[in-house]
């Protein structure tokens, strides 16, 4: 490259960046995660590809600074400025990947790991308090639990390999590809501490050097889990190991709220009131402990799955819970409706930003009134009881549901990202809210 365009330094720099981007693409397309007995193989300092957007931005900003220092501000403010902004927003990956796994898989994996290591032979039979105490002790120590070779069953090996693969991707491919690990059906603090321990075993969490590579996000899905979410959050914040993890992550905590499963579990009224109260109380817990909380709304597309007009939903959040940021899911069924036409997509994003700004900066017109909250609590209890008496307690409902809806046909269609049921049983409890 040095002999090409010998007297055109900026063209040479652009040629160099282009060559490294092509090498990065080749590396990405041919990459396979590697894990040896010593852990993740270290990436060599001398390489021709970019390890993440930070290295590309360093090259682009060097050009920007040079142009501005040599009467080239007009050029720096043109395409180069736009390119820098694109890299800042999209990186080399466009969008980060969330990893999501059911809490039962972590429990089963740790049961086998603890039994093999001689720590505990009945982890899956312990109470929530006993599990939390055991996990806290293990996180406070430095004893490794998982050997480099995996002597466990297939499911446990897969769980461990998931964490090892995450580390390999972050260190060998791109440190921006994965930020979040979501725990489905979080029922207690032990479900969160279990993931932190598995992350430590893979080298993703190392309190000795202040490193934690993942945001651990509990997902509260049922009405009961939503009602217990503030207590779970409080217990986590009182656990030294988890507080250390939060310190490593900038004292930020994200919590995901399940709309679809809470609707399936208790009906529309009870689910929405449980979601409202959970957001209000989680925000109060975060304020009390000085933690920056972001709520992740797992909303469906259809109204029956917690969907509807997103801007209206943002404006309906409890006062003081938005604070300039939120995450939400966009289901496949509404992607084209909202983003298929550029004009509609821009308008939809404008409405979201408008609602976000209003919720953040405009004082609420009224606070929660005690009598209103009491009335809604009673309505929620009565409606949930009526809903569950029909859907879960009436033995005839399952037969009616299977005969009146095309659920059997939907189950056979290979069009979803996961099976229609969490287990092989046909029970309503095991059927996903989004088959």
Automatic annotation (TrEMBL):
Report keywords, A-Z.
Answer: Lyase, Pyruvate
A GO BP annotation: tricarboxylic acid cycle
Q: Does the keyword Transmembrane helix apply?
A: no
This protein's GO cellular component annotations are:
cytosol
GO MF entries: phosphoenolpyruvate carboxylase activity
Active-site residue numbers: 264
Q: Which InterPro entries match?
A: PEP_COase, PEPCASE_His_AS, Pyrv/PenolPyrv_kinase-like_dom
List the PANTHER family hit by this protein, alphabetically: PHOSPHOENOLPYRUVATE CARBOXYLASE
Job of this protein: Forms oxaloacetate, a four-carbon dicarboxylic acid source for the tricarboxylic acid cycle.
Tell me the protein's name. Answer: Phosphoenolpyruvate carboxylase
Gene source species? uncultured Chloroflexia bacterium
